[in-house]
Structure formats: structure tokens, C-alpha cells
Amino acid sequence: MRAVRIDRFGGPDALRLVQDLPVPEPGPGEVRVRMAYAGVNYTDIYRREGDYAASATYESRLPLTLGIEGAGRVDALGPDVSGIEPGARVAFTRTLGAWADHAIVPAHRLARVPDSVSLARAAAGMTNAMTAHYLTTEFGLRANDWCLVHAGAGGVGQWLIRRARVLGVNVIATAGSEAKARIARDLGAREVVLYREADFVAQARRATEGRGVDVVFDSVGRDTLAGSLRSLRRRGTCVLYGHASGRVDALDTMALAEAGSVFLTRPHMADYIATTQEYAWRAGDVMDWLAADADAGTAPRIWPLEQASLAQTEQASRATTGKAILAIAPHLDGPAPEIAA
Questions:
Q1: Residue 64: enclosing H or E segment and its boundaries?
Q2: Nearest Cα to Cα of residue 104 among 129, 81, 121, 83
Q3: Which residue of 93, 218, 249, 290 has the fewest CB atoms within a 10 Å radius of its CB?
Q4: Contact at 8 Å (CB) between 260 and 233?
């Protein structure tokens, strides 16, 4: 089978398409999935660059096949697997090896894809929407609160705005262009800050009449963290869930006190889907969201598997909106949608 792998940590040139790997066999409690589409996520860039080389949570032993989410059809069942049949339409996240013709997935990590939801939308939605699920349920957001969402037109950012508005939370979003700002406004953001032209800290303070926001969702990292902390109300919470601009390698903890005795957390999604029950709850909700709203999440940009390095380069440029996915066997999902040139 084909797979996109890395043998060393580095830039996009570290990716290589291997054509002749053996098709893996599922073990006890596992399922083999014939992949239709796989998601392209920042965590794949972090793994490729070696940011998780020392991580016990996201182990990255070389060589490895990239990709932690995707959708396709059940191809084979391992021993002791029941409740799912070959041919079933399924999606998953946080299981390494999705950028391949076949992926081995623990059976309890599979979510059935409703008939009304395409495999492309399922592959594009699993990680982003489940990230928004845990971020908006675990950090104390309540109706009438204010939150600041960085990269509001990005894949997770769009879901965060949607889910915060469902909760009755007021959203301030940052965006890098007027086109991206329109996306955030259309999703319900009360305020949108063009961060290259305006000070998001000042605008967050102005919108909240000097109080500051209750929660900041920061996926940018090095370029924004200091301002994120200053945007918070006294004893507010900053959730640093990514580092698109670079890792935050040093922090003077006194900055937390001076910002108003605020809280800073750097979560891994893995710790919020650690049990079978919690994973099933979040994945089930995501599938319900996708089935209920045909417009949830912008249409993904689709790249062929052979162009995974170009998809990562585009994502790392931070010039994109929404989600990119890789087409592996799109015929499994019916007529193939348009694929990026």
C-alpha cells in the first residue's frame, strides 16, 4: 500500500510517499479502515518537525506514517471486534497512520458516519470539531461570557465560534485579512480584530468595557501569548492549544500574576478523550453537528495524497481558511469532489 512517511524530523522535504508497504492486519480490538480521506492538521506539522519527539502522550518514533484523522470504510476486523461490519462508513481521530491506503484503528475510536454526511466532511470535521467540543465544555464558559478566539477563520476557530455562540457566549475573533474577518463575522463573532492592523488586547478591553475576556483560545502561540494573557479578566483562563507561530519555550510565571492572577493551560486533546465513554460522547456529538448542519465548517480544500507536502506548506503559511484534507480513495465516497491542482 501507499503511505506518506517520515524517516527524520525536518521540513516538508522530510515527507516521502512510500509505494510498496505491506497492507497491515488488525490485531485484537482493532479494525482496518480503507481510507477515503485523511485530515491535514497542525499536529502533523508538529510531529514532522520533531516538536513531539520527547512526548509520551503523542509518541513519535521514527519511521512513522503521518496523519491522525480520517474517514473511510471498514475493510477488515481483528479478533474480538463486534458491533461493526465490513463496509461501514466510519471516521476517527487521534490514531496515527491515516495518511495511507489502509489504517489500523482501535474499534472504540471509530465513529459511524451518518448517511447524510460525506466521508470528506467527516474527515475534515473530526479533529477540528472535537477540539472545539472539549475546549468549549471544559474551561468554564457560560452564557453571556466573553471569549477571544485567535485564528477565527481557521479550521478549529470556525468551530469554536459556532459552539460558543450556541452556548450564548460573546466572541471576539482575530483574523489576518478582511476576507477572513468576514468568515468570522458570518459565523457570529461580535467583534473581529485584524491583528496586523489593530491591537487585539485594546479591542478586547474596549469590547468588555475594560473588564477583559473570560477565556482566550490561543492556537498561535509565540506571537500572541503575551497579549492573550493581557486580554483576560482577573482570574480568567488562557487555553494555549497550539503553536502555529512557534512554541512558547519560556514564560516568566510572574506574568500570570501581573495579568490579574490568570490561569494558563496547555492541553493535549488526548487527555480529554482518554476513556471510551468520553471519546464516544464527543465523536457522537460531532457527527450529530455535521448531520444537522450541512454548512458546518467551510468546504475542505482537497489535495491528492501525493501532494501532502504542499498541503502542509500551505497550512503552515497561515494564509488558509478552513480545513485541508488528502484524497486517498475518494471513489469510496461516491463522485469525487474537486481536488487542488
A1: strand 64-65
A2: 81
A3: 249
A4: yes
